[in-house]
Description:
The structure holds two protein chains of two kinds. Chain A has no helices and eleven strands. Chain A is an all-beta fold. In chain A, a hairpin with a 7-residue loop joins β9 and β10 (105-106). Chain A is globular. The model of chain A has no long low-confidence stretch (mean pLDDT 92). Chain B is 0% helix and 59% strand. In chain B, the strands form two sheets. In chain B, strands 2, 4, 5, 9, 10 and 11 form a six-stranded mixed β-sheet that branches. A five-stranded antiparallel β-sheet of chain B has the order 1-3-8-7-6, with no helix packed on it. In chain B, a hairpin with a 5-residue loop joins β4 (29-37) and β5 (43-50). The termini of chain B are far apart. Classes of the chains: A mainly beta, B mainly beta. Chain A binds chain B through residues 6, 32, 34, 36, 41-46, 49, 91, 93, 95, 97, 102-109, 111, and chain B through 2, 30-31, 33, 35, 40-45, 48, 88, 92, 97-104, 106.
Amino acid sequence: GAVVSQHPSWVICKSGTSVKIECRSLDFQATTMFWYRQFPKQSLMLMATSNEGSKATYEQGVEKDKFLINHASLTLSTLTVTSAHPEDSSFYICSADPSGIYEQYFGPGTRLTVT
Amino acid sequence: SQQGEEDPQALSIQEGENATMNCSYKTSINNLQWYRQNSGRGLVHLILIRSNEREKHSGRLRVTLDTSKKSSSLLITASRAADTASYFCATDEAAGNKLTFGGGTRVLVKP
């Protein structure tokens, strides 16, 4: 149990275009999901906390107008990278928190390459 | 700066040897967790230790937590080539359940 999926697993897009990444909790409901970014050989950096039915909370330095987060249901959160640039190329990982338990379950990640 | 700092950054050992890595953090925590990440993949949860616990075991894994020193260690005993991965500690700050990750330790287990 406690499986989190991400789609797509990898995506290549042209500079200036937008890309949407989906994060789904497959066998549990999650009122809270988290989005992280990981550059090569570095650790995960929390970008934002996504709460079902309300606005996401962004970490300092993360542009909310560039990284749009929508948590429309208890099993789905989406991250849209708008007007992507090569410096947005990274590994994006989501996690889901099955409320009340402090163990987050992580998705397999999405590798974004912006050319 | 990150909450957790890990030491060493990289570790290379022979199969069968033990691997020890350490994590230090700065603020009060609810829990500390260890995760494994194979190259280019997602994170796998290994073990969670609560702030009122001092030691925890899971299979070949042993985790200690010293809240007075704000540090934790992860020991992998009798390592295997399949243990080759990056290992991250993550702290859950007392004020909420956001995870803050350490810099990670890259472990290479040579067969």
